[in-house]
Amino acid sequence: MRTNSYMKTVLKKIILFVAVLSIFSCSEKKDNFNPAAWVDPQIGSVHGRWFFYTPASLPFGMAKLAPHTNAYGSGGSWAPCGFDDRHNSIEGFGHFHEFQIGGLVAMPVTGKLQTTPGTLEKPETGYRSTFDKKDEHAEPGYYSVFLKEYRIKAELTATERVGFHRYTFPESAESRIIFDIGHRQGESSGVIEATMKLSGKNTLEGTIETYPEYLKFCDPEKRVKMYFVIQLGKTPVSYGSFVEDKTSDGQSETKGIGNGMYINFATKKGEIVEMQVGLSYTSIENAKLNLKTEATGQTFDAVRAAAHEKWNEKLGRIKVETKDSINKVKFYTGLYHALLGRGLASDVNGKYPRHDGKIGQIALDGNGKPKYNHYNTDGIWGGFWNLGQLWALAYPDYLSEYIQSNLDFAKETGWLHDGVAAGAHSNGVQTNCFGLMIAATYNSGIRDFNVEEAYQIAYKNETGYKDRPFGSGKYDLAYFVKEGYIPSKDTTIANGWVFNFGASHTLEFAYTSYGVSQFAKALGKKEDYKKLTKQAGNWKNIFDPETKFIRPRYQDGKFIENFNPMQAWRGFQEANAYQYTWYVPQDPAGLIKILGVDLFNKRLETTFNESQKSTFGGGNGIDSFSGLEMLYNHGNQPCLHHSFLFNYSGKPWLTQKWSRMICDEFYGAEPLHGYGFGQDEDQGQLGAWFVMASMGLFDVQGHAAMHPTFQFGSPLFDKVTIKLDKKYYKGDELVIETKNNSKQNKYIQSASFNGEKVENAWIDRKKLTDGGVLLFEMGAKPNTNWGVKTPPPSMSTSK
Predict the structure, then answer these.
(1) Distance separating alpha carbons of residues 749 and 781, to the nearest angstrom
(2) 302 lies in the same domain as 337
(3) CA-based, 20 to 30 A from 726: which of 314, 425, 483, 518?
(4) What stretches in the chain show pLDDT beneath 50?
(5) Are both 577 and 683 inside the same structural domain?
């Protein structure tokens, strides 16, 4: 296993920064602002999720190329796999990396033909190749590695929908590329059928159909279909197909499972063989079109340079200035992860996979280009505390398209999804927070969609339970709407998993009801507003006045017996009662009132004093769920707002202290200690949290309020400049500056915005997006008189 000290990381980033500046100097601005050079994709790459490590890709791209160390034959589902920095052998390079989607792996080799990859423990039993970490390089948009067994340098880059490979071979009469299409890869789960054929002397094409684990209970009649076309830069001298380890020389096509193909050629020393792979979720014809449109006339180096520029444009929308190189690396790596997942599902012509198995068509503009894009996505569970806020602030153009994708799905099916894979429901948490996301997007001033249609489907998401498909989530919504809470009871789903999440679902549905209630209020829908506001208060129905915890209760109204607030999974999804009792983001003031401010603060202070001892999560345990039975678990979504609750309880300096400590200690700059220790950096969730918290901005309500606010934490940087999109916002840029900031000076002494004093620990979001300068004076000791005048708005204190 590789371990890096912080100083080694700093040195590595400085060297990379200088190198990339020299490579791409022609495109640099005068101030040499090159944020992509501060991204280290290796951070957190131990025990990462399937979609976590895809360096050769564009922001939100379809083609996400990556090396695999443990993807072949994986268990599917959601468990971490794909690439792990502790491993030292590669089994191939994959193309599709989305939630519940994976397939098409290529591996360049020489020598004896082998058609299975072997194992991590015994790579020599297959076509795997070992590699040295010193011969591996990853940056946004590019990856390279030297395969020791074959003396091949492999390089990868990508456009939006095309993967580019460049292999530098040694002299060999037995050079070849192996294509695996018929095995589970990452989260793909079982392959139903895979086809591939040599369709021209230099081209191959094929299809892969899989049955992912989550579709089996979310959308059992559906499958995920992938299409590809491969353009080779060298004509094979021979070829063949295989099923497992049985080969068929000269066979130009294959169909079935466990299968693939290989192409053979002789190479000279240093000979370069290039390959471009067009991808699609709709058809081989559209894979060809994507390939033609994005690859014609392109060279590998030109595509790599363009990828670098596209990453710089996205990352460069936020510029941080600091002498702390580690924090700069952590910031841009976190921002990179927030822009990596939830990728394109639509083709260059606007075709995309519909839920009914047909092909959808996005409307075209006057130039014949799609007006927006369609996306695959995991659920947005917890995304309102990080991704939603970040996208709305700096990437409203993407957020608008992301919302429109779900609205198109809802227009087709009548229901919002909360996770979709190539047109099929793939709800990972069996709830659905997308109504809230739509409302928060509207509340943020992003409204370039059909608002009335959006409202109606969001309202249905919070109140509609009749004939609701399981894949849409909220399978237990009827209890919530009719009885005011969801009872404690086991639910067994189609694949045998047993759920008992009544308490956490009650809290979540109350919160999302609040978001849509604010949408209703903004549109003047008074009766809807009343109904949803009542639902938003349902959290009180499972508050136990004896223990003063949220406590699951049975359908007869009795609270569960033998209650242990630290017990995970009993009524709470991926958490416990101690963690979920704080889950009233719509109304922290209401929670403070029912607990009493003294108990509220005592518990919250104990939470963080104790949790620092375990690095604010599961300690050094390499496990996505290692913090589930702790007081606080930053490695999972339900806890991410906790440190900002002190702003509501009269102690904003403790929000400043603990949000800073989490940034410093939970987040690292190493492959193992990146996002905790092997915890769940779930499609940018934790990276986006760091980005927001390190800028000193966060909204506990997740922009659910009709007039959203940002609450303040402890900004890390000397200066942050955020470009504001003039299509959506009045201002050109928002600048956040600090004076006297340092590791010791973590406490806000005073604040001002555009020269006017800010007395509270929060500010109206619209003021910030109108543009200007937010200035913080920092110090080593808390200013207990600042920020306490008026708490942030809360459901029970707002008009």
Answers:
(1) 8
(2) no
(3) 518
(4) 1-7, 9-11, 13-30
(5) no
